[in-house]
Design goal:
With 81 residues, the protein is mainly alpha-helical. The protein has three helices and two strands. The protein has a two-stranded parallel ribbon. Strand 1 (2-3), helix 1 (15-25) and strand 2 (35-36) form a beta-alpha-beta unit. The protein is globular.
């Protein structure tokens, strides 16, 4: 799992606190690790051998944004070695 921070968003917890919460929540799941994300998500996935990206969507606006991000991530992975 990747735990990132967006400087334009206001979070309830600091990045390191969120990372520790995710690690605690997934500690009993075999094969799941959580690491901080900086830079492009596609680069993180490539470095960690990920085959898929799963992101949450809270509503219609999020769903539309996630679709555009998915198309961009797909185009980035298509041309990068």
């Amino acid at each position: 799992m990747a735990v990132g921070a967006n400087s334009s968003k206001k979070y309830l917890f600091e990045p390191e606190e969120r990372l520790e919460l995710v690690r605690a929540a997934t500690a009993d799941i075999d094969g799941v690790t959580a690491d901080p994300l900086s830079g492009l998500l596609t680069d993180f996935c490539r470095a960690h051998g990920a085959d898929a990206i799963v992101k949450g969507a809270r509503g219609a606006v999020d769903f539309g944004l996630r679709g555009r991000m998915a198309r961009m991530n797909s185009s980035l992975t298509a041309w990068r070695p």
